[in-house]
Structure formats: structure tokens, C-alpha cells
Write a structure and sequence with these properties.
Length: about 240
Amino acid sequence: LMGTVGTHGINRALYKSLPFDPIKDFVPITLVAAVPNVMEMNAEKAKQSGIANVQDFVKYLKANPNRLNMASSGSGTSIHLSGELFKSMTGTQMTHVPYKGSGPALMDMVAGNADVMFDNLPSSMQQIKGGKLVALAVTSSQRSTALPDVPTVEEAGGPALKGYEASSWFGLLAPAGTSPEIVNKVQQAVAKSLGTPEVKEKMQAQGAIPSGNTPAQFTKLIADEHVKWAKVVKDSGATVD
């Protein structure tokens, strides 16, 4: 089974009830990869607003609460909650505008009808490289090889954003009760594959950060993600029910 930041990181806090328990019903095997989101603005809007980096962005929001609208692919998605985490840590306000998917939101970003978005990096790459959107930062804990000159939010944001991290990750899990021998065997095979130059190169070209970590490390990641996103969901009031 392939789990994601949504199914095993966010949804437990977002939905009133789920048909499964993302903690008790599964045994984590390994994180396959994490895909950063990218904090981006419509290039013309950024220029008009005098925003060239994350600290400029925060200063603008402090002086102009809710002046900028924040597009997302829908309420409760990692794209939405990445922005809510940013707002919470900086004490700033933006007007959230949920779209039915990333595609329509991205179209409005390019057209100038939306101001900022914390989009999945691969889907925005073409518009960033084409100059329609400007990437202020990536949301991962390390820079992306796909945009090596773009800093992380933590790097660019100063003390208020220390520890900021938000990625759209996916990993392998097994049904609860699966033997440790099987779990370890699968993890080792996946880690070996992810470590090959061919696989690493293909994933990094798409903006993904390959992992292959241990079952214990993946278990801790899922537990930490539950805590982090539960607080963001509660603070933001995000809901889909």
C-alpha cells in the first residue's frame, strides 16, 4: 500500500471519521520520496508589491493583512495547509481561495487572478522557468535539486520560520500484523532501488527527494506529521466534512 501525507498525515485530523486508523491499521515500511511544495507568486504581482524574497513577503503581509489571496487545490490539502502553517508561524493573514484541483488554481495564478500559492513543485516548474511565476522558497527542509538557487522557507524566512517544513510525501506501508522480517526485506529492496543513480536522477529531475529510510524512521515521521498537521488543521479551522 502506498500512503501519502494526506492519508497518513493530515486526514486523521481533517475528517470526523475515517474507514481506517492510519496509525493502528498499518505497519510503516519506508518513505519512498518527499516532494517539496514551492511558495510562489504571480511574477507581475510580486514586482508591483516590491516582493523579492520571503522576508519581503512577510513584511508586506504585516502591513497589508488579507490583501493577498492564497490559492490552493482545495481545503485541507497539503497545498492549503502549507500556507496555513506559514501564516501561523509568521502571524500573518491571507485570504484562502480553494479551487477544485491544482490545475485551475495554477491557471489563475498565471493569469494574475490569484497572488500566492504553495503548489507542488513539479506542477509549477514550467511556469516558474517560463517567468510567469516567481519561486520565493521551497517548503522542504533542504533545497530542491530541481531549483537549486531557490532557498528553503526556513533559510529565507528568519527566526519566525525556523523549523518550517511541509512536503507532499509518499511511502510504503503493510497491513498491521505483517512480520518484521517481511517489512525489513521490502524496505531493503526499495532502499537499494532508490539508491541507484538512474532512479535518483529521474526522481530529482521531477523535484522529488528520494528516501528509503528505515521502518522506525518512517514510523516516527508519520507520528510527527500527525501532531504537526493536527495543530495546523485546528488553528486554521480547515474542514471538508
